[in-house]
Amino acid sequence: MSRDECILIVGAGPVGSITAVALAQAGIPVKLFDALNTTPTAHRAATTHSSTLDLLDEIGMAEKVIEQGLRARYFQYRHRETNEVFAEFDFDRLQGETGHPYAVQLEQHKTVAIALGMAKAYPHFELHRQHNVVQVINGADHVEIVTKTPEGTKQSWTGRYLIGCDGGKSTVRKSQNINFPGFTWEERFLIVATHFDYEAADNYRYRNYIADPVQWCSVFKIPGPEDEGMWRNLFPVMTDEPEEVVTSDDWIRSRFDETLPYARNTSIIHRNIYVVHQRVAESFHKGRVMLAGDAAHINNPLGGMGMNSGIADGLNIAKKIIQVCQHEITDEDKLFSLYDRQRRPLAQKYVQAQSIQNKETLLANDPKKASARFEQLRQTAENPAKHKAFLMNASLINMIRDAAAVT
After folding, report:
1. How far apart are CA 290 and CA 15, in angstroms?
2. How many beta carbons lie within 10 A of that of residue 204, not counting itself?
3. Which of 27, 73, 266, 381 sits in a 20 to 30 Å window from 148, CA-based?
4. End-to-end CA distance of the chain, in Å?
5. What integer pLDDT is reported at residue 329 of this predicted model?
6. Which helix (H) or strand (E) holds 209?
7. How do residues 186-203 score in pLDDT, each as one tens digit?
8. Does residue 386 lie within any of the structural domains?
9. Do strands 297-298 and 289-291 pair parallel, antiparallel, or not at all (unpaired)?
10. What is the separation of C-alpha 45 from the centre of its chain, rounded to a whole number of angstroms?
11. pLDDT tens for each residue of 356-401
12. Domain contains 31
């Protein structure tokens, strides 16, 4: 294939970089662009689900993620006031359904580093950093983008197809006038990284959700910068106070005093705050332009749905591009329309619904509804069939299977 017929990917996060690996392995030239000079290390996605590990196995990446990450077999739901565990789920119930009956806790930037390391082994892969996309031309027989560097230099790049993996504010999506309906949560989310060992203190698992009508939160373990073990504490910010207030030591200490008092004296290693959206693009495909990951759908982080579903998007579209480039399929528009049908409705059915439900479970500010929901979760965890069914959705295995069934 001519290098002029390469695939252009915008966004070198986990979705864009992993999609690039799949295409490069098939011998397809790839140019990957990112506006940033380096991969951000801010605390964001960190959970890789069973279904995603199965997909990563197909490109030889799962083992590398598992080696660097923490295997999380269990996750818990707790009451904040009593710290009582009212439901615990065990991914080992997925034996026979997946080659990886567990989740892996690994920071997003480390997953990106693995993928880029693999992609760079191919001479027909190029990574162009500090290239901000300022124009997209979706032609009849090619696609073209114009990028701009920090020095103001503009350059035009031509390819066969373009995949927009450039996040919730996607320039690629906006260039195609694709609507992004949904809503923004009233509260912001604050992530605080600490070294306090919840596992040793009170038998926490690597993934924990703490429910409360006022101040819910979640606690997750990750390897940390030096693989020394670090815990992420996620708090909702239900106030309109400015960022400098809600990220201050005093405000954060108050949240620990309120929700996790046994960890009140822990050192604060890192903090970041962000606005959370629930949105799905009206189309994932327009001509020679495709959307994947947060550019196509975005959701709150509870349950680890975003990065995992985005990786599934990228590997789905990569397979279809490979089929076209290797002349296995000639009706490319029909094939890419299938991508939209396989991924967009299921983003709404699984990713959006599950992440919204996860948040509403933790908040549960109606006492009667809260009690009913907590009891339902408890019964689900204690019933083997319901327990497994819950995990089939939570791990996105059902989403991957449902997508494959769409023809």
Report:
1. 13
2. 21
3. 27
4. 28
5. 81
6. strand 207-211
7. 889 999 999 999 999 899
8. no
9. unpaired
10. 6
11. 666 666 665 677 777 888 888 999 999 999 999 999 999 999 999 9
12. yes
List the one residue out of 295, 294, 289, 350 whose CA is nearest residue 317.
289
CATH of the domain at 32: 3.50.50.60
H, E, C per residue of 61-88: CHHHHHHHCEEECEEEEEECCCCCEEEE
Binning pLDDT at 50, 70 and 90, where does residue 42 land?
confident
Tokens of 61: 């990446």
| Torsion sign, CA atoms 318, 321, 326, 332 | positive
Q: Residue 211's beta-bridge partner residues? A: 79
Name the 3-class secondary structure at 167.
coil
Q: Total domain count for the chain?
A: 1
Q: How confident is residue 2, by pLDDT bands cut at 50, 70 and 90?
A: very low
Using CA atoms, how far apart are residues 128 and 9, in angstroms rounded to an integer? Answer: 10
DSSP character at residue 51: H
What is the reported pLDDT for 187?
Answer: 82
> According to the model, what pLDDT value does residue 361 have?
65
Does 402 map to a domain?
Answer: no
d(CA 366, CA 222): 33
Asked whether the whole model's pTM tops 0.85, one would answer yes
Nearest Cα to Cα of residue 386 among 185, 90, 56, 2: 90
The pLDDT of residue 100 is above 70: yes
Nearest to 55 by CA among 401, 407, 405, 406: 401
**pLDDT at residue 214, as a whole number:** 74
CA 357 to chain centre: 17
Domain that holds residue 130: 3-72+102-181+278-362
Whether 61 maps to a domain, the answer reads yes
Alpha helical stretches, state H, 204-363:
243-246, 249-259, 306-325, 332-346, 353-363
Sole residue written with tokens 């993996």: 165
CA–CA separation, 399 vs 299, rounded Å? Answer: 16
Spatial distance between the Cα atoms of 209 and 207, rounded to a whole number of angstroms:
7
Q: What is the pLDDT of residue 3?
A: 43
Residues 6+ apart with CB under 8 A from 268: 192, 193, 194, 249, 252
